[in-house]
Amino acid sequence: MIYLDNAATSYPKPEMVNERVIHWLETGSGSPGRSTPTSLTKADSRVLQVRKQLTNFFGIRDEYRIVFTYSATDALNLGIKGFVELGDHVIISAIEHNSVLRPLRHLEQAGTISLTIVPCDSLGYIDQHKLWEAFTPKTRLVVLNHASNVTGAVQPVADIGEEVRKRGAYLLLDAAQTAGVLPLKMDELYVDMIVCAGHKGLFGLPGTGLLVIGSRIEKLLSYRQGGTGYNSESEYQPVNWPEKYEAGTMNIPGIVSLGAGIEFIEQQGIEQIAQREHQHLERLWESFFQVPKIQLYGPEPHMPRVAVLSLNIEGWEPDDLADILQHNYKIQVRSGLQCSPLAHKTIGTHPEGTVRISPGFFNTDDDIENLVDAIKKVAATQVDWMLF
Ligand SMILES: Cc1ncc(COP(=O)(O)O)c(C=O)c1O
Q: Closest Cα to atom 15, ligand 1: which residue?
């Protein structure tokens, strides 16, 4: 099977990630905070070590501002629900993932916030003019997708972040598709919170995510309460960070995998990883863009984008195309709306969606050539005979 669905979750993981996790499962023990008050378990030390690695990765000083979560969705729920207050106005773009849209619609329905969705162009870039128009005196939070999981478009975050700050609001960046391929230094991007999925470009296990809390954020409520191993005598959630947000036994193998994933990225270099994925994207683009029956979506390769390519073939339902690729050609891609109905409305592919191809660091040139051949063969097939 050729795996080309790295935007969903990366596969395979680097060998060192697998080894580190297996080693941990065979030799690791304990749960952070669940030892005596004066001694650290092996798990405590390991979690702290990975937290420190992550502070470097995001260019921040304080480990307590790194919160381990169970997915990007979990981190978005914390960043959004922990931050907004009654009466706040929140702005998002029209290419956000459901993991941003649904928590906000939930808060809107409950009467907690008001929400404005700012349009994007057909490539997936936010309309900045409309963004600034959408601001009201009550606007307190902007949530922005760094790179679209449908079109690959990368937003000009630093410019937007600086302006959001000038207007007295805060910026939460959904970096699910960029962590591991674009630098994410918090101050350089002028963002106040960064959300990542640990299991995509950071090469961690599924069941991992991160919320990175910037220095301008002083108050963030927990939205999940429970045992933290600390202050067990208290009936109330601890106030100290990050324990306040990390109730329940942590996903230690996942955190170990993230530490190894970050180390792998640093060894390879983010730019080199991005370049490799981009070469695959360029190859796909140049192979398809002149094929009459193939419609490509998103920015051309020379524009700001990541290696996530959506396409459709005239006469084919995206789900059928993905099925054929899987069953006849042993190639795994993703079809449909990719949890981003707003993005598909924006690019005109709602409700059928697209077939999304997302190469990763471990894909070879042969993988890409196989996919190109397969798609071209399908595009050359007369659909009418398929009906009989
Ligand atoms: C842009 C974006 N945001 C959020 C998510 C949610 O990630 P997770 O599955 O880790 O919750 C995804 C996953 O596909 C995504 O692409």
A: 176
* Residue 280 to residue 177: CA distance in whole angstroms: 16
Which CATH number is 15-267's, of 3.40.50.970, 3.40.640.10, 3.90.550.10, 3.20.20.330? 3.40.640.10
- Angle, helices 365-380 vs 270-288, to 10°: value is 20
**Ligand 1 atom with least separation from CA of 147:** 1
The owner of tokens 């650290």 is 40
Strands 193-197 and 209-213: antiparallel
Cα 192 to averaged position of ligand 1 atoms, centre (Å): 19
Ligand 1, CB within 6 Å, residue ranges: 8, 71-73, 97, 99, 145, 149, 174, 176-177, 197, 209, 339
Integer-rounded Cα radius of gyration of the chain = 22
Going by CA atoms, what residue is nearest to atom 7 of ligand 1?
72
Q: Please give the Cα distance from 135 to 129 (Å, whole number).
A: 11
Q: How far is the CA of 176 from the centre of ligand 1 (A)?
A: 5
- How do the domains of the chain map onto residue ranges? 2-10+269-383, 15-267
Tell me, in angstroms, the distance from the centre of ligand 1 to residue 97's CA: 7
Question: Ligand 1 atom closest to Cα of 148?
Answer: 1
Kindly give the number of the ligand 1 atom that is closest to the alpha carbon of 146.
1
Please give the average pLDDT of every successive group of 10 residues along the chain, which has 388 residues.
Answer: 98 98 89 68 90 98 97 98 98 98 98 98 98 98 98 98 98 98 97 98 98 98 91 93 95 97 98 98 97 97 98 97 97 97 97 98 98 96 58
Torsion of the alpha carbons at 75, 190, 88 and 155, rounded to the nearest 10: -80
Q: What ranges make up the beta strands (E) of 201-308?
A: 209-213, 294-297
Measure the CA–CA gap between 37 and 249, rounded to whole angstroms.
17
Please identify, by atom number, the ligand 1 atom nearest to the C-alpha of residue 8: 14
pLDDT of residue 39: 61
d(CA 85, CA 286): 48
Q: What is the pLDDT of residue 388?
A: 43
Tokens of 205: 């296990």
Which fold does the domain 2-10+269-383 belong to in CATH?
A: Aspartate Aminotransferase, domain 1 (3.90.1150)
